Amino acid sequence: MERDGDASGGWRFAQCFGDKGEVEDITEADIISTVEFDHTGDYLATGDKGGRVVLFERNESKKGCEYKFHTEFQSHEPEFDYLKSLEIEEKINKIKWCRRQNAAHFLLSTNDKTIKLWKVFEKSLKVVAENNLSNDGFRNIAAHSGNVHPSLLPPPEPLVGSGTNLRLPTLTHHDTIVAAVPRKIYANAHAYHINSISVNSDGETYISADDLRINLWNLNISDQSFNIVDIKPVNMEELTEVITAAEFHPINCNNFVYSSSKGTIKLADMRDSALCDHHAKHFEEEEDPSNKSFFSEIISSISDVKFSRDGRYILSRDYLTLKIWDVNMDSKPVKTIPIHEHLRSKLCDLYENDCIFDKFEALWGPDGRKVLTGSYNNYFHIFDKDDDSDVVLQADKSAFKAKKLAGAKKNKGNNASAAAQINVDNVDFNKKILHSSYHPRENTIAIAATNNLFIFSANNPVST
């Protein structure tokens, strides 16, 4: 764990978890694939490509927002589907916390095919402290009688068999450990790779989405789910789009949204029908014909979609932009924020090195004003939708060591962004911020950068 000083824009680098090895030394299994705060912000979970889940706990003994290691467990193992001759990776795609109802924590983790509900709790280890063999409860006369024959000795005190000194074994507390056990395993419900899970506000159900279907589950029932969205065509040759992300409404338990590779967002209402193929609202922005190119369909694919905490707005991320939609206006977004406009001339190169298919996440801050998303060179952006400010930070150890933490607050009027500081010909596409999580109550964020977890905090409190 490392600590460093302040960054501009009111944000401060607080912590870094991860080994100090060079990028070349990092194994594929150590790369973090998902990050998620719980509903209180006191706990933080990460999942990696090795199938491990690591939990961090807020360190209350420290000032500010600091975390310490809580526990680690192996969530998924590599599997092989012999019917389809397909390897199933152990990589953790998503982690979602369930609302805490007692001393234990419950969280869902999923790889491409199987979802598991884990119970994490403190377990007391006890040891036998005393039993009949702990000491000699009977007077050992023979030891002090010299050569006297045992038959001539008086009977032992107390009398053998009387039970006077009989003691039951007693257990005493030895240690407290954090245990993780799988309470439910939700398997065999997805033919395609799971990209999203979302717990409902009712606390009883959740949805899981793969490329073509969305299933509704009851947390207490692992052997049955209901298919609520199915976009699989009768003839797979007619397939034109896939589902990329899905999320429940934060308040209304009957509403959810899902996005597609065609750049569309659909709002569905489970009260309309059992199968939600007919959406309630369809959010899509028509593309400018002057920008149309071979790559148009690829870069319009939405990689992440999120409701604001009050459910009024929807945040979506495609390859080049962040878009904020008003739930009541589906014709166009209320704000479009350019992220990778400087890479538009590099789309051919990005297609060849597969970076054009990178899936960046997008997040709302706790105040409903700030939005967060990642970029290359380990940069990430924090925008304020009300005053159009943009804070660009870098989650990179070398930047901290050189004390050159990139952070500059720029106004929209300057027509400036991270592109102004980035040499387009010198972008490190191997360093990318794909996964992050925003603290639910304060301006603290967790950023996954390859195998490292960075914690940033802002000096300014959350305004509600």
From TrEMBL:
GO biological process: negative regulation of G2/M transition of mitotic cell cycle; regulation of intracellular signal transduction
Gene Ontology CC terms: protein phosphatase type 2A complex
InterPro entries reported in the protein's UniProt record: PP2A_PR55, PP2A_PR55_CS, WD40/YVTN_repeat-like_dom_sf, WD40_repeat_dom_sf, WD40_rpt
Pfam families: WD40
GO molecular function, one term: protein phosphatase regulator activity
Matching PROSITE patterns: PR55_1 (PS01024), PR55_2 (PS01025)
Coiled-coil residue spans: none
Keywords: Phosphoprotein, Repeat, WD repeat
Protein role: Phosphatase 2A affects a variety of biological processes in the cell such as transcription, cell cycle progression and cellular morphogenesis, and provides an initial identification of critical substrates for this phosphatase. The regulatory subunit may direct the catalytic subunit to distinct, albeit overlapping, subsets of substrates.
Annotated family: Belongs to the phosphatase 2A regulatory subunit B family.
The protein's name: Protein phosphatase PP2A regulatory subunit B
Lineage of producing organism: Eukaryota, Fungi, Dikarya, Basidiomycota, Ustilaginomycotina
